[in-house]
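We both want to read discrete structure tokens more fluently, so let's practise on a single case. Would you supply a protein for us yourself, any chain you care to pick? Would you write everything just below, so we can both look at the same thing?
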Amino acid sequence: MERIHIFDNRAQIVDLALVFAAGTTRDPKGLEGLSYVASEMLLRGTAKYDRQGIREAIDFLGTSLSAEVGNLTLQVTGDSSTRNLDQLVELVRQILLEPTFPLDELEKVKRQTIAESSEVRDSDSACAGLFFTQLLFHEHPLGHPMRGYASSVKAITRDDIVSYRERNVIKKNLVMGTAGNVSDKEALHHLAPVLTAMPEGDDIEPLPAVPAGVEGLDVVLVARTGQTQAQIVIGQEGIPGSHPDLFPLLVSITGFGGTFTSVLVREIREKRGWSYGVSAGMIPGRDTGVFRIRYAPKTEDVVPSIELTLKLLSSLQSGGLEAEHMNFAREYLVNQYPFMVEAPYKRMNLIIRSRLTGKPLDYAEDFIRYVQGVTDEAAADAMGRWLVPKRQKIVVVGDPSLEKKLARLAGVSRVRVFDYSHDGPLES
């Protein structure tokens, strides 16, 4: 267990976060969506309260309390006035350590989860992101859709939920944060009822390596008949937060596609008017990461925009960015930093995320120093080592007529077509 504490007495508020390394990557095969359903069930009943009772207790205290899951984490977060911190902690103790997981609520959550998955596929942008994650990581645990598949969610039982909580709500994989008007010693005293009752648990097993995938461009067309506009996601496996190239790549990718004046935005949006929204970003994880580019051109501009993007990536890989873009990226990141830490809870969350993804221990405190220390040469070298333009994963949500055009892209290894309603793994 690790504890993060940020003291700030400007307001009589305390923020609390208990973050477990227990996200969707821990879902067993055939039970994808288990962690999401389990997180939804935590606030559905305890030994003392039913679902409505939990809501009323939260409202009575004037607090907020939520449970959410990501691909790496299960987190319970809340805030309250300083005087109500003990009552907030007691609610947290109950939902984490005394949940009842009522069967009637479980059936409601399962139906709700399946309905939400259908809604995701109804949004072209969200659908593109969903298919890209599955394409990038294939059947690796990182490729699990957060809400699973309809078949896997239907298979989840109450015993599965109980087992999930017992395995994952443990001190071994907990990072706990407090921020606000309470001292570190006082915070520890308030949290004692949770910490003393929580089991130590076993060490977390590391994730397997991500499969290399096919040689060449790997393309998935998500077919939606009659579309005049497409959603495109292009990218590759990224880096973990512990990678020494973290900051050189962050600055480079920001200069390439992370601002309104970046290279990709200028070429796709400003010069050619192919898409209003254009972005490139990097998401470091614990064991690996994600690099992706997103934009939404008209159907007739899909192939030209992809060809241009791949050309720009090749140029970035071979020579890096021009000095003006590197300078602007550094300045942009430095100017954004105050917004990342302007409130105590933001600083706390930034530090927690840093710990869970293996970033430097002083990531939050020395972010500006790291960014300013990135040289143009170091950034170019990092891009040259890491970026592989000829092996990008490409997802296009658009009209089925695009299949033949995408198959003619230079360097394509395979093109597969799935209906947008496809609800299952992407077969190799």
Notes: The first helix runs from residue 34 to 41. The chain has two domains: 2-197, 217-419. The domain at 2-197 is CATH 3.30.830.10 (Cytochrome Bc1 Complex; Chain A, domain 1).
